[in-house]
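This part of the workshop introduces the protein records we will be handling. An example says more than a description, so a record of this kind follows:
>
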Amino acid sequence: MSAVRVSMLFLAAAWLTMPTDARAQNRGAAPPPPAGRGAAQVVPGAGRGARAQAGVDLTGYWVAIVNEDWRYRMVTPPKADYCGVPMTKEATQIANTWNPAADEAAGNQCKSYGAAAIMRVPGRIHVTWEDDNTLRLDTDAGTQTRLFRFAPAAAPSGAPTWQGTSIARWERQGRGGGGPSGSLTVVTTNLKAGYLRKNGVPYSENATVTEYFDVAPYPDGLVLVVTTVVDDPRYLTQPFIVSSHFKREPDASKWDPTPCSATW
């Protein structure tokens, strides 16, 4: 594993073990962009399925660790509370008209559960292999299903959806220290317009979501670090970057599927 990747994952794990008061001092600051991605080596296909190529095991049950942006993730923030999101003027105007009752009535209660925001929703995820070239991620919050396809030619097309079309690839940084040796990059397009935050902060159907899935050591297990980069030329003045953390759970005993809600 490269020195850059080791440093990034070490910092993520160190953040999770810091006292709450110390972490709170950094709230409100935009997270840095992923480091060292350009140096990553894409794992060659060599005629093998994606499951066989996996440098790290992401399968199993994981629970969200809400260690930042508590007031935007654990409760529905009030209208016009958009701190930290680089919104265009048009996006601000749209967010100022947010009406959760109207969303519910129109059947749009899942607008804040789309691919650009779902990893920030508190809850649990379950990662499995749908087949040798498709990784499946289910969420209990909103009962959403994401399919990460490693064979672009087989990716479905058609009308935009909340979870869009996701193309995945493994990256490998080399082995070292006996730790995880790879990470997953997922690029999602073909999205229905939705919300980056529960209070109506919008992203458009032109948004592209790029995610980096990494595993790091945790005091009593493993932590999954998901760095999400949302590019939207219509509603964002620059990429919106967040980092979400999940702790591995031993089984499905706490799995609790719940439907989408426009509020909570």
